[in-house]
Amino acid sequence: MISQIKTKVREGGRLSGEEALLLYQEADLNLLGQLANEIRYKLHPEPIVTYVIDRNINYTNICISGCKFCAFYRAPGDSSGYVLSKKDLAKKIEETQALGGTQILLQGGLHPDLPISFYEDMLSFIKENFGIHCHAFSPPEIVHIAHISRLSVKEVLERLIRAGLDSIPGGGAEILVDRVRRQVSPRKASTDEWLDVMETAHGLGLKTTATMMFGHIERLDERIEHLLRLRDLQDRTGGFTAFIAWPFQPQNTAIRVRPSTGHEYLRLLAISRIVLDNFQNVQASWVTQGPKVAQIALFFGANDFGSLMIEENVVAATGVTHRLSEEEICRIISEVGFEPRQRLMDYTLVNNSGPG
């Protein structure tokens, strides 16, 4: 059966959920990597690996979601909770642009008291003073703003777009199966709500990314279900630019599991590249895996190295910290035979060939 599935993949056939799960469970790591790498080269025959220079700015850590996997959030009233001032926001963006940054990734907790005007004002301030690309507000944030403001998701997105929203990150997906979501993030957007935000955003002309956080309480078949839900939506809209998966980091969280291994990460990455046949780009997660595994990921379906991550707080709150400069990213990519190229959110290449 594995031989038949392998042939089907190599002939460009689309796998069913059952075929994908069987391949994921039973194929050896080398075969998965081979198949994923072949698909990567069909989509991107040029030996280029892209990266983006941006900064992950968390505008608040106050959150009512209380996700069991999160070590970053603070409950309302906690003395260590914050809402970023415009002065601090400006300083972070200035530093980002000084390092050649082309965008900011703007995400925060589900704050119970911030009206939609707060988000509009923040976007307008950024656009008027810096003009930088705003890749902002994951679907759970959009659903939360809609609830607080008593507006529809479409109305919220239309207002945020007018204020300066350029694209939406795929955060808050975790696993797109409600059995899992009810246990790890019961007060966050449901599977259908997450997908609805993305479909609505695509309909309004916004590009978005898609993510998966795996390795907590989900089953293997639920990982495949997650990929199929993304593939179905991409069939309808074509609005996703990339897929990014990373393993759950259990340190300092309420979920007690062993961390996923590099082997498990590469298997998941490869099956993602195989199943998501309508996604142009798959990103390596060096922030959680470190540079060596991320190098190997470039032969397991990934064609993008992700972000320079000038600042990252959520993964760091679990005690996992990897930091790379642009020079180091370019060196890591070049060491394994690829040409590093800086890109924008929509994967347009910046006219350079590395730092300097």
Question: Top keywords for this entry?
Answer:
single chain, 356 residues, TIM Barrel, 14 helices, 10 strands, globular
What would you say this structure looks like, in words?
It is a single chain. This protein has 356 residues and is of the alpha/beta class. It has 14 helices and ten strands. The chain has one domain: TIM Barrel (Alpha-Beta Barrel), CATH 3.20.20. 44% of the residues lie in helices and 13% in strands. It has a four-stranded parallel sheet, with helices on one face. A three-stranded parallel sheet has the order 9-1-10, with helices on one face.
Quick structural summary:
With about 350 residues, the protein is of the alpha/beta class. Helix content is about 45%, strand content about 15%. The chain is globular and about 55 Å long.
